[in-house]
Amino acid sequence: MSTILEVKNLNITYKNKKKNVYAVKDVSFTINKGDSLGLVGESGSGKSTLATALLRLHPKHSTVITGKANFMGKDLISISEKELLDLRWNELAVVFQKSMNSLSPVHRIGEQIEDIYRVHKPKATKKEISDRASYLMSLVNLSNRVYNLYPHELSGGMLQRVSIAISLLHNPKLLILDEATTALDVVTQGQILDEILKMEKEMDMTRIMITHDMSVVSSSCNKVAIMYAGELMEVGCVEDIIPNPKHPYTQGLLSSFPSLKGEKKELRGIPGYLPDLSIKHEGCIFATRCKDVMDICRKIKPVKKIVDNKQEVSCHLYGGDD
Q1: What is the CATH number of the domain that holds 262?
Q2: Which of 6, 40, 104, 193 could staple 70 via S-S, CB 3.0–4.6 A?
Q3: What is the pTM of this model?
């Protein structure tokens, strides 16, 4: 199976005159063609920071990014601005949180789609763009009449569908969905997730789904990466991690959600708060909130281990650190 994206030792630091914020630390993961990776964690864990770094959308004067992100043979972190512009929205696309709000309120949907399409294909005819838009509209369950409407004439769910359709205009190899369904009601969210799965099969697409909702990952992804305070705690297949989480943070996340199978269970939150990311922590970043914390956790950062030949876990509970 061919590799689409390989991220190695990625670090992202926000800098200002007063202090540095270490938002993402030593993150590594691989996505193969056809994968759907759910990136999960609390708000402030660094999920969106990671996504925008892959697209190089951070301001250069206040952000330091190190490491590698090999996307189809090109390092997204070090390639030239021109190479990146050729890739962005063409081979690599994103649907941001509340991306529906980025649509111009004074232009029809069709006009905006035409402008966006011609960024990469300036000589495209109106019919070519209309045909492509019509196909994508049907894929996200919208009628062709939407093409001639203004954004204020559409519901939130319809606007989010338009945003997804726009991200697919040039049939990207990798699509990043950053909390793309969070602001929607449960029924609409479910419909859009079904449409995303349909698109993956029809367009041979690979996806990163950024969310804080484990149920979204369980129903729409085959791999999951658990992120806390800028670090990956656990990575593996959904079918392994959801029923049998190894890291105490993953266990805590799953305990705070209703059962994914419908049976009754006691919901328990994770006590405490995210740590101050302007401070470099010596031991495990999760130690102050962990129910299984040991002395070694406060002193030494755990190394990644493969547990049960399945999950990659960063935790002292699984030995090898003595």
Answers
A1: 3.40.50.300
A2: 6
A3: 0.90
